[in-house]
Amino acid sequence: MTGPSEVVAAFDDPADNLAFDEALLRAAPEAPVLWIWRNTDSVVVGRGQKIEREVKADVCASDGVPVLRRASGGGTVFHDPGNLNITLVLPGLGLSGEAVKPLEALGELMTATVAELGLPSRLGDRGLFVGDSKLCGFAVFRTRTGLLAHSTLLVSTAAERVGRYLTSAPADPRPLDSHRSQVASLAEHGLRKGVAEVTAAVRLAAAAQLGELTTRKPSAREREWHGSLRHTRYHYPEWHSEGAQRK
């Protein structure tokens, strides 16, 4: 079995980044995989969410901000270059054969990262909070062979930018609706760190949790899955609008 690794990859199109995020899981790695990435301005809804309940679609259209869908559950998030994405892919069973708990693993990673940056935090409902404000949002996706947990980490994204594109809580709450929370970035907490410094803190926390990470390029299997998912999902408009997959 290979050891834990950090895959280095970046794509200009947010849809391609989302496709690669899922491809890492579909490739069924035998050991943990970390991927740290960013998107240009975009809104990303959870797998089963209704866009009209989550997103100010007219404002997004006016500003040229695409509304995209990911494969995991969880709530709607705003992505921009000031928001760091951390993906952790784990085999379905740990080294000793025990079931893996991806949210716990991700919570441990992000708690250690924020502590390394000098802020106290607490785990809450699907995310990490500093005081009353959410700093990181979590989501999970499972297959028969593995588990994907990913987190946002607001480095410098202003809270008002998030509010510009996301709706307020509907008057008739439904199970798949986002759990709306006040948000604040590291910068808004007075911690003005650059993305490179925050990325280094994530890597340090991941190495402490998972073991020494080998840095590598995407594998052939990951690239193959990436191409397939771009075709069947992420470059198919009905996937983003309705969650429908191309046959």
UniProtKB/TrEMBL annotation:
<dbReference type="InterPro" id="IPR045864">
    <property type="entry name" value="aa-tRNA-synth_II/BPL/LPL"/>
</dbReference>
<dbReference type="Pfam" id="PF21948">
    <property type="entry name" value="LplA-B_cat"/>
</dbReference>
<comment type="pathway">
    <text>Protein modification; protein lipoylation via exogenous pathway; protein N(6)-(lipoyl)lysine from lipoate: step 2/2.</text>
</comment>
<feature type="domain" description="BPL/LPL catalytic">
    <location>
        <begin position="28"/>
        <end position="214"/>
    </location>
</feature>
<dbReference type="GO" id="GO:0016874">
    <property type="term" value="F:ligase activity"/>
</dbReference>
<dbReference type="InterPro" id="IPR004562">
    <property type="entry name" value="LipoylTrfase_LipoateP_Ligase"/>
</dbReference>
<keyword id="KW-0436">Ligase</keyword>
<protein>
    <submittedName>
        <fullName>Biotin/lipoate A/B protein ligase family protein</fullName>
    </submittedName>
</protein>
<dbReference type="InterPro" id="IPR004143">
    <property type="entry name" value="BPL_LPL_catalytic"/>
</dbReference>
